[in-house]
Write a structure and sequence with these properties.
The protein is an alpha/beta fold. Bound molecules: iron/sulfur cluster (2 copies).
Length: about 400
C-alpha cells in the first residue's frame, strides 16, 4: 500500500468509501460481506474509512462502525461528515449536537479522526456560509475537546463557491475533498480547483475517482486498446493511474461494493504506475464521449425527498445509456419500472435539483427522457405486451 504523509500521520493513499456497500436480496446491508471486505482492507494496509450521515439510508455508519469495532481504535482512521444541507431527515438533521452525538453512537466510537462539512455546493452554501454559523462553532468546540482530530470539508461547488467557503472557514480547514477524475478534470473544472488548493497548500482528498463506476466501463473499443498497453490492469485501475499523474492528492476514496473490487483497488495502490501521454490521450478521448452525458454519480441524495418516489439515479442512468446509443435492452429495462415510477411521473417540484451536489436539473432531464422514450416504437409495444401479460396473470388469479 502506498502511504501519504498528512501532518504527523501516514494515511493509506486508498481510502475505503462506504456510500455503496453491498446489500443482500432484501436490500439490507450485507454485514458479513462488509466485514469480509474490511478485513481484507485492514490486512492489506487501508487505514482510512469514510462514512456519512445519509449514506445507505443512514445505515452506513452503523455497518462500518460494527466492522471496525473488531479492531483496536488506534489501528484505523475514521471520517464522518456533518450534513449541513441535506434532505435526509428534515430540519432536526441540522442540529449539529444531535447529529454529532448520534454519529458517534452509531459508529460506536468516542471520537472521529476526520470530520467534514459535507457537500458544499451552490445550494448548501446558503446554509454553510449563511448568517448563522453557530453550527461551525460547535464543531470547533468538539475539536478542542478532542472528539474531532482533524476538520475538513467536501466540496462539489464551482470555483466561486469553493473560494467563498475557503474565505470564510479556510483558516480552520485542514483538508478539502473534491470530485476528481479525468472526466471532471475539465467538465467540473477540477483542474482549476486542484491548482487553487495546491496554491494554498491545502491537502486534497479525492472522491468519485471512477465517477460512481461510470469510468470503469468504457466500451470494448477503448478497453481492447487499454488491455494491449496494460494487460494486467482493469479499466478502473486506469482511472486511478490517471490520478497518479495529478500533483498532490493525499487520500483517494473509492466507494467499494464488491470484494473483488477491494482486491483490485488494493493491487492498484500497491505501487505508483502513472499513465504516460499516449495512455492519457485514450482516456481523454473516452471522456469526450462521456461529456454529453448527465453527470449523475448515483449518490441518491435526491431520492428521499422525491414526492413521486422515483428512483432518480437509475432513470438518469438509463437516459445516459440511451444517449450512448439505442439498444434493445433500454425499453426492456424501462418497462421494468412500475407505471407510476417512470420518467413521465415526475411532477417537476424541483426538490431533487436543490439536493443534487452536481446541480443536475433533474426535472428537465426526466422530461427529455420521457419524451425520447415515448417516441420509441418498440418501447410502446413492449409496454403493451407487458401490460397484457400482467392483465392476463391478474385474470388467472
Ligand atoms: S422534480 Fe420530479 S424527480 Fe425531482 S423530486 Fe420532484 S417529482 Fe421527484
Ligand atoms: S441526480 Fe444528483 S443527487 Fe440524484 S443521484 Fe444523481 S448526482 Fe446524486
Amino acid at each position: 500500500m502506498i502511504y501519504k504523509n498528512f501532518q504527523d500521520i501516514k494515511l493509506s493513499a486508498l481510502g475505503f468509501g462506504t456510500m455503496r456497500l453491498p446489500v443482500d436480496a432484501s436490500g439490507q446491508i450485507d454485514q458479513a460481506e462488509v466485514d469480509k471486505m474490511i478485513d481484507y482492507a485492514m490486512a492489506n494496509g487501508i487505514n482510512y474509512y469514510d462514512t456519512a450521515y445519509p449514506y445507505m439510508n443512514s445505515k452506513s455508519e452503523i455497518s462500518v462502525g460494527k466492522a471496525l469495532s473488531r479492531y483496536p481504535r488506534e489501528s484505523y482512521y475514521l471520517a464522518d461528515k456533518y450534513p449541513g444541507h441535506q434532505n435526509t431527515k428534515g430540519a432536526s438533521v441540522l442540529d449539529p449536537k444531535a447529529v454529532f452525538e448520534d454519529q458517534l453512537e452509531k459508529c460506536g466510537v468516542e471520537y472521529f479522526d476526520f470530520y467534514l462539512m459535507h457537500n458544499i455546493n451552490e445550494n448548501s452554501l446558503r446554509f454553510y456560509c449563511g448568517e448563522d454559523t453557530s453550527y461551525f462553532d460547535y464543531f470547533l468546540e468538539q475539536k478542542r475537546n478532542g472528539r474531532i482530530k482533524h476538520l475538513g470539508f467536501s466540496c462539489h461547488a464551482d470555483m466561486p463557491g469553493l473560494k467563498q467557503f475557503m474565505e470564510m472557514f479556510g483558516e480552520h480547514m485542514e483538508f478539502c475533498q473534491i470530485q476528481l477524475n479525468y472526466l471532471d478534470w475539465t467538465l467540473q473544472k477540477a483542474k482549476e480547483k486542484v491548482e487553487y488548493l495546491n496554491s494554498l497548500n491545502m491537502p486534497i482528498w479525492v472522491m468519485e475517482p471512477v465517477r460512481g463506476g461510470k469510468l470503469s466501463k468504457l466500451g470494448e473499443a477503448y478497453e481492447s486498446r487499454m488491455r494491449e498497453l496494460r494487460p494486467e490492469e482493469s479499466t478502473s485501475a486506469w482511472a486511478f493511474r490517471w490520478l497518479q499523474t495529478v500533483p498532490q492528492p493525499t487520500v483517494v476514496l473509492s466507494g467499494m461494493t464488491y470484494y473483488p473490487q477491494v482486491v483490485d483497488n488494493i493491487k492498484t495502490f500497491s505501487e505508483e504506475k502513472p499513465l504516460n501521454e499516449e495512455e492519457i490521450a485514450i482516456l481523454y478521448d473516452a471522456a469526450d464521449k462521456f461529456a454529453k452525458l448527465v453527470p449523475c454519480t448515483a449518490c441518491r441524495y435526491c431520492c428521499d425527498g422525491c414526492p413521486a418516489g422515483l428512483d432518480i439515479p437509475n432513470l438518469i442512468s438509463l437516459h445516459n445509456d440511451l444517449l450512448m446509443g439505442y439498444n434493445v435492452n433500454i425499453p426492456i429495462r424501462y418497462g421494468a419500472f412500475d407505471d407510476d415510477k417512470r420518467a413521465d411521473s415526475c411532477i417537476g417540484c424541483g426538490q431533487c435539483t436543490n439536493a443534487c451536489p452536481q446541480s443536475i436539473k433533474v426535472p428537465e432531464v426526466l422530461a427529455d427522457f420521457a419524451e425520447k422514450m415515448s417516441k420509441l416504437d418498440d418501447w410502446d409495444s413492449i409496454c403493451r405486451t407487458r401490460n397484457a401479460i400482467a392483465a392476463e396473470m391478474l385474470a388467472k388469479k
